[in-house]
UniProtKB/TrEMBL annotation, chain A:
Annotated Pfam families: RNase_PH (PF01138)
SUPFAM superfamilies: Ribonuclease PH domain 2-like, Ribosomal protein S5 domain 2-like
Official protein name in the record: 3' exoribonuclease family, domain 1-domain-containing protein
Region (Disordered): 1-38
Domain Exoribonuclease phosphorolytic: 40-189
Subcellular location, principal: cytoplasm
A GO CC term assigned to this protein in UniProt: nuclear exosome (RNase complex)
A GO molecular function held by the record: RNA binding
Automatic annotation (TrEMBL), chain B:
Protein name as annotated: Ribosomal RNA-processing protein 43
Record family assignment: Belongs to the RNase PH family.
GO molecular function: mRNA 3'-UTR AU-rich region binding
Record-level GO BP terms: exonucleolytic trimming to generate mature 3'-end of 5.8S rRNA from tricistronic rRNA transcript (SSU-rRNA, 5.8S rRNA, LSU-rRNA); nuclear mRNA surveillance; nuclear polyadenylation-dependent rRNA catabolic process; rRNA catabolic process; TRAMP-dependent tRNA surveillance pathway; U1 snRNA 3'-end processing; U4 snRNA 3'-end processing; U5 snRNA 3'-end processing
Taxonomic lineage of the native organism: Eukaryota, Fungi, Dikarya, Ascomycota, Pezizomycotina
Domain Exoribonuclease phosphorolytic: 47-241
InterPro entries (alphabetical): ExoRNase_PH_dom1, ExoRNase_PH_dom2_sf, Exosome_comp_Rrp42_subfam, PNPase/RNase_PH_dom_sf, Ribosomal_Su5_D2-typ_SF
Length: 285, 363
């Protein structure tokens, strides 16, 4: 128990259990409202936290149906600043990334302590950004990149989410990469290129024996079953992938499926990059 | 060196190198005699930053508000979770007569009963998170700072002392007698004719626990006022689903379609000011004369680091008359009786501003 916070009652509290008898059929809403190669609308703005060196806010539009929330991310960058004296010498800038879900961001209330999935996100984010930053321009210094996920990408109405967290994390990571790139640019930290994230997934919409198809920017609640997904962090002008995260279950014999999944991820990332560039030129101009 | 070189520093560097003279300059001797004294942020000493309130921006929380005062931005989400009475260690079944009189709106005594429940069962859980990169001094990965802990505790005690939330709203009833809708105590005391023993009495089966989580998105001074405004706005926005006891499943189930607004009593507003003293007090006991200090309303981050004495007054002027709910003052000896008396008027003015902003978002 953390005595430094207010913990509430000693007995365990339970999140509300809903009476599903009177509600409409939940299965019927499972259909994708966009073409398979279209990403959702995105809103990006820099300079939301004036006290930070750089900051950005990203919101991904909700899909058409009500009750589904989009992703809302807030990122702030502090630094570059000198490392503490106790730290060992580093010829490069030391990146430290923190990703934290707000307690009210998901269906179930999140605690204040970081859980493994948040650490996982932070590690992937760091890998994605490290490839973009010109690190040896700041020896002996560090930069903190802090992202709070104000609202997670989750369907509120789905009562039985069938292990969707993994796929939600993919979407969250791609958002984190894009918003962090905007905040880094806002902080004036030199990068070789603007990195942006994109997600592609292999989904099976109708039944277990239907042929799977590849979609971009998947929402788990819009698809019957997600077989595999991959999140790509991509530098467009260099044509380089800085981080690739693949999860799922694909036969090893079918490499074409795998490569086309990555290609679609890159396509999604290019879309995000357009928004990023627009946002940054708007701030400059 | 015979000539002293004239150095001109840009304002941000000046503010960083010598913050105290920087702030003092504008207050003590304004650049021209016909200009009023001003702070470094361009405001007059008794000028607050405008407040803006946005509600219902979060979809997973039962109530939420985003409050912005200048560059300080706070996001507050309220979420209800159920606490079955079996998991309350020292649960005392509610005295039925007491509940009845409370429902009929009696005197102050009922207030005490309701508040006892809130406090005894710890039904309000406010927590403030500063370590969201909101300012360079708050970085994540460490336990909450002293400031974050103090703020949470202050919000917690103010929530209880103002009686903002009524315990009646948080009770979930089981009424075997008649009513199916148990969230509301509408038909208390009726339909109880054929009571078949103790088990068939109307009883409280669970309580809603309100988790009130606050996140600073951006920090530029005066955290308590902004956080408190966010708490009040979010609670006013809160709608809890209608809950009832399902005897077959032996749990509380909530309705997806029906929800009930939380009754929030009044609209208390916190108003803080910091005292900026001309000289850094080196000698103890030396009285600071009139004119050697300034009361800076709604201080920003730079001013907060330079001021030691702070006063916070919580007033409620929602029903015409201004009532003082709490006064907190610490860090010095300058604010005396007269100043506090005068400050009530300042706080009342601020509370009307905040009230307007909160009501504008609700309409």
């Amino acid at each position: 128990m953390d005595r430094r916070r207010i913990n509430g009652p000693s007995g365990a509290t339970i999140p509300p259990v809903f009476d599903d008898a009177g509600s409409q059929d939940l299965a019927s809403v499972k259909s994708r409202s966009r073409p398979p190669n279209a990403t959702r609308k995105m809103y990006l703005r820099t300079g939301v936290t004036p006290s930070a060196s750089g900051s950005a806010y990203l919101e991904i539009a909700t899909s058409a149906k009500p009750g589904v929330s989009g992703l809302k991310l807030n990122c702030s960058v502090h630094g570059p600043r000198s490392l503490p004296r106790s730290a060992p010498f580093s010829p490069h800038i030391v990146l430290s990334t923190h990703v934290k879900y707000a307690p009210f961001s998901t269906q179930q209330r999140r605690g204040y302590l970081r859980d493994p999935s948040e650490r996982d996100l932070a590690i992937h984010l760091e890998a994605a950004l490290r490839g973009a930053i010109i690190a040896d321009r700041w020896p002996k210094s560090g930069v903190d990149i802090i992202i709070s996920i104000v609202e997670g990408d989750q369907d509120r109405e789905t009562s039985k989410s069938q292990g969707d967290e993994v796929w939600d994390m993919m979407n969250a990571l791609s958002g984190c990469i894009t918003v962090a790139a905007a905040a880094l640019a806002d902080a004036g930290i030199d990068c070789v290129d603007t990195v942006a994230g994109g997600v592609a997934a292999l989904v099976q919409d109708a039944g277990d024996d239907s042929t799977p198809s590849i979609v971009v920017d998947p929402i788990p609640s819009e698809h019957g079953k997600i077989l595999a997904a991959c999140c790509v962090a991509y530098l467009p002008t260099r044509d380089e992938v800085t981080n690739l995260w693949f999860r799922g279950d694909l036969p090893a014999s079918d490499m074409d499926l795998y490569t086309s999944l990555v290609e679609n991820g890159i396509r999604a990332s290019k879309n995000a990059n357009c928004v990023l560039i627009d946002c940054l030129t708007e701030t400059v101009g | 060196m015979t000539t002293t070189p004239t150095v001109s520093l840009p304002a941000p560097i000046f503010a960083k190198v010598t913050p105290r003279p920087f702030l003092l300059r504008g207050l003590a001797n304004p650049p021209s005699p016909d200009l009023p004294p001003a702070r470094t942020n361009g405001r007059g000493p008794r000028e607050t930053r405008p407040i803006s309130v946005n509600a219902s921006s979060l979809s997973h929380a039962h109530g939420s508000a985003l409050v912005r005062v200048g560059d300080t931005t706070v996001l507050c989400g309220v979420r209800g979770e159920l606490l079955p009475v079996e998991s309350i260690p020292q649960f005392r079944p509610l005295d039925k007569n007491a509940a009845l009189t409370e429902k009929e709106g009696g005197g102050g005594n009922n207030d005490v009963i309701g508040r006892g429940e809130l406090k005894d069962y710890d039904l309000l859980v406010p927590n403030i998170e500063l370590a969201t990169g909101s300012a360079p001094q708050f970085l994540p990965g460490v336990p909450p700072t002293a400031l974050a802990q103090t703020l949470s505790t202050r919000v917690y005690s103010l929530l209880h002392s103002t009686g903002l939330v009524e315990a009646g709203d948080l009770r979930v009833w089981y009424k075997p007698g008649g009513g199916h809708k148990t969230g509301e105590d509408v038909d208390m005391g009726e339909g109880e004719g054929g009571g078949e023993g103790e088990g068939e009495e109307d009883r409280v089966v669970a309580y809603w626990v309100l988790y009130i989580d606050l996140q600073f998105a951006s920090f530029d001074g005066n955290p308590f006022d902004v956080a408190w405004a966010a708490v009040v706005a979010a609670l006013r926005d809160t709608r809890l689903p209608v809950a009832r006891w399902d005897p077959d499943r032996e749990t509380v189930v909530c309705s997806r379609t029906e929800s009930r607004k939380l009754n929030v009593r009044g609209l208390p507003v916190a108003c803080s000011a910091a005292v900026f003293v001309k000289k850094e007090s080196s000698e103890k006991g030396a009285r600071t004369k009139q004119g050697d200090y300034w009361l800076l309303l709604d201080p920003d981050r730079l001013e907060e680091t330079l001021c030691r004495e702070v006063i916070t007054m919580v007033v409620d002027s929602s029903d015409g008359e201004t009532r003082i709910k709490s006064i907190e003052k610490h860090g010095g000896t300058i604010i005396g009786r007269e100043l506090i008396r005068g400050y009530a008027g300042v706080a009342a003015k601020r509370s009307i501003e905040v009230k307007k902003a909160v009501e504008a978002m609700e309409s």
